[in-house]
């Protein structure tokens, strides 16, 4: 059993939340989300003996013909909504603040994915995930249940941020597997335009996309002092500069970039939130789903 | 009480303060890259800052202090005139020590207290008096108890920087070890140099019959007349260096030698120099009667025996009254007691070094200059 990636206290604050989709007009099955279909779900689960009060149309008449007893066919509950968590696993995700070297962006993304899994589990929704790494995607088909949550913890625990954003041809499984009306939550820093393009393309293709941008405190406040040799972990590019001299210019540019990103999210109908590493983990989820 | 430096040139070590300054100017913070994924929104400022800046002020101050203290340590700081004047009583070994306090010392090497047994053997009294006078703080009164006869005087009456209470008491010092003159055996090695026959005859007259050619083995000890032409071989030099005497003819060379033997008219007969623990003598004239009339004098063998005999011990006995020290005209400051500050400085340096290491290796540091 892998350790719980959620920070202590977060689970309690998640209790009041549930996943909300804008297009939750499920035709699929039974769940917290409103469904137009009636009766049991599609996935067969088990037969059980008839009890008084069961609807006659639920009786399996062919089995009655063979066994001369009434059996009721039961199906698994099936939610109309599948949650896909897309986790960026590039090198920039390994970045952390100097004051908390262990709480990297990747650790936050892993905890956020676990929190989303908890929300889906509480709502009876299926959930799956895709880890976007340079050498290939790690993809898990949506499923419900505690086993899926444990699998999420186990698989994400072994990963670290490394490499660059995967090439577009490697992203084909993302567009093939994610069905229409699925809820997609993408966790990334969205500094790479390819990541933004992936999210907007999914949104354009009819998926409901939620983008959670993960920022370090240094990126928000630029709280460096003195001279530093800044290095881009993905490109390896380096820049030697004095933090005090660079601060104002950087903050202005970064604010412009975030405004531009927000405008792009709005244009493509992507719900978005920003999570900075010094905030409680449930803050963006609360802004999005409460 | 004055502070002073015995070796001000040691302050040149102060130049080493440049090392920590340079280390802290090197701006190691830039040596370790900082991961920053949002680099694309950072742009190099066109004008980099010119003002030099030091990293980690506390550590820099600790290191500068450390270097400065080390420089001070090498400059050998002392405190002059720190000790208070006090009275001291010294007793010459053999003098009556009854009635002396616990603080009294023997006038012997190391100045042991008189509660210890009296040091045995020869004691250079005059030399120790000067040493004791030089190590005492100015103004300290010195009392010396001596027996009536002193063994251990030297050629000069002690001239001290203070008046000495010179108490002559009963008792007697151990006499110096008597040295009885021993006849030195003279061996002659004749290689054909003119005049060897005179030496052989003198040796026979002195009762020594060890004469032979150059090939004959050398004697174990004593004196050797090496009258063989050519350079003096190493084995003869080694023989001399073992504490023996070697006599050489006029043809040999003996650099740096001084006249040690003059004839009745005062003309030089032989010169000599020390080799190792022994001596080498060389006749400055050919051993023929025309050049060296002393050769045919009847006392030539006795003079030769004197020349090769070991030097006599100098007389060192004097009456205590005659050896009473006099006050010299030395400067008052000479011979002041000084306190060496280096042990304390070493302690301070060690403590500062520990502090520097603690500052440099504590956990809450970004980088490691």
From TrEMBL, chain A:
<dbReference type="InterPro" id="IPR036465">
    <property type="entry name" value="vWFA_dom_sf"/>
</dbReference>
<protein>
    <submittedName>
        <fullName>DUF58 domain-containing protein</fullName>
    </submittedName>
</protein>
<feature type="domain" description="DUF58">
    <location>
        <begin position="46"/>
        <end position="259"/>
    </location>
</feature>
<dbReference type="InterPro" id="IPR002881">
    <property type="entry name" value="DUF58"/>
</dbReference>
<dbReference type="Pfam" id="PF01882">
    <property type="entry name" value="DUF58"/>
</dbReference>
UniProtKB/TrEMBL annotation, chain B:
<dbReference type="InterPro" id="IPR024163">
    <property type="entry name" value="Aerotolerance_reg_N"/>
</dbReference>
<feature type="transmembrane region" description="Helical">
    <location>
        <begin position="57"/>
        <end position="75"/>
    </location>
</feature>
<dbReference type="InterPro" id="IPR011933">
    <property type="entry name" value="Double_TM_dom"/>
</dbReference>
<feature type="domain" description="Aerotolerance regulator N-terminal">
    <location>
        <begin position="5"/>
        <end position="77"/>
    </location>
</feature>
<keyword id="KW-0812">Transmembrane</keyword>
<keyword id="KW-1133">Transmembrane helix</keyword>
<protein>
    <recommendedName>
        <fullName>Aerotolerance regulator N-terminal domain-containing protein</fullName>
    </recommendedName>
</protein>
<dbReference type="Pfam" id="PF07584">
    <property type="entry name" value="BatA"/>
</dbReference>
<keyword id="KW-0472">Membrane</keyword>
